[in-house]
Amino acid sequence: MESGALDMPIWKISQKKPIKVRNTTLETEKLLEDRLEDWIVEDSSILGEPLLLIGRQVSIPEVNDRLDLLALDVQGNTVVVELKRGPLKDPVDMQALRYASYISKWRFDDFERQAKAFIGKSGETEFNFNETYEKFCASEGIDETPDLNTDQRLIIMGSEIKERLGSVALWLRDHNVDIKVIETELYQDGETTYLQPQVIIPLPVSRFAETGRISEAVSKPWKTDGRSWHLEKRCSPMTREMLLKVDEIISDSLEVEGPQWGQKDYISYKIGNSIWLWLNTHPKMLVLNFNVRAKAFTEQDIAGALAIVPYSQAQSQAEKMSLGSSIAIEEIDDSHDYAHLRVKENFDLTSKSFLEFLKETYSAFPRQQT
């Protein structure tokens, strides 16, 4: 499989001359798969990104199966890590997909239990998983802690990628499955072993690729084809249909400008020169954020009209994950509030009450801002 880079040896520079460091393998040095796990547990950045590890050899009791490593990233995604000491080949890809399907059904309590067993000290009763995850996100510059398990990712790591696995991995990425494949090279210098990971999929981009380029289209696809970006890359099939239905209702019922697709995380609708609605796209839900006059709505009134529940942005991850569709009002200043409507799978977008709610938020838009 072509990696897009020329593999070259590591050289040790002595006082007299350069000496090529001997290439070795996990098998020939008898460094078993669990040693690679040890190294990653000590420093997960070996995998090329910040991750919060919450499990090792995680058991899936219902199917008598276990996965190598389980982690969370700063976007709230669950990351299934599969490690192989030999060449990567079938059925590694199917194993990882199977594990991801199991974890997709986990709730907050499952992650809390797993993290406490892995991170918490023996006998500790005060381990706070929510606080641990929030600190991890904050350490990486994330101000607002994301919801957990909105999507699942795969990282597969081994000594040599095979054509069949590479083809499957690329196909999965084309179909909105986030999979990363890492090749490892081992080098031996006396008693010292060197590990050199290299991301093979997605293919690395040359540092010279942007030289002379005016457009940012390659690095920011949402700017050139935002519609495809949100519908195919940000949404799942379920939320894609929900988004199209919301857009249809708004376009048929209200006089607004939009949708405007050119933002990475959301699409927007304007009244005049100001945003009335910005809609965050996710695989498991849509978040509709309305700009409305201060005190125009209460959470209880909206919750009652739409048959949903109120929530607070200060609630814990456990509480948020346990809720279905829900509403929160954020007080911004004396002139306007934000109404945050989290729409999940069973919400009835075709109901008369939802249409009435859209019309009420439209009427409650603080038009003096335009």
Q: How confident overall, as mean pLDDT?
A: 82
Structural class: alpha+beta
**Strand residues, percent:** 25-35%
- The total of beta strands comes to 18
Please compute the radius of gyration using only Cα atoms.
Answer: 24 Å
Distance between the termini: 55 Å
The appropriate CATH architecture of the largest domain is 3-Layer(aba) Sandwich
What is the domain total for the residues? 2
Please mark out the parts with pLDDT under 50 across 5 or more consecutive residues, or reply none: 1-5
Provide an overview of this structure.
The protein has 370 residues and is of the alpha+beta class. It has 2 domains: 11-201, Trna Endonuclease, Chain: A, domain 1; 221-369, Yope Regulator, Chain: A (2-Layer Sandwich), CATH 3.30.1460. Helix content is 30%, strand content 29%. It is built from 11 helices and 18 strands. The strands form 4 sheets. Strands 3, 4, 5, 6, 8, 10 and 11 form a 7-stranded mixed beta sheet that branches. Mean pLDDT is 82; it is low at 1-5.
Characterize this entry briefly.
30% of the residues lie in helices and 29% in strands.
Features:
370 residues, alpha+beta, Trna Endonuclease, Chain: A, domain 1, Yope Regulator, Chain: A, 2 domains, seven-stranded mixed beta sheet, 11 helices, 18 strands, 29% strand, elongated, disordered N terminus
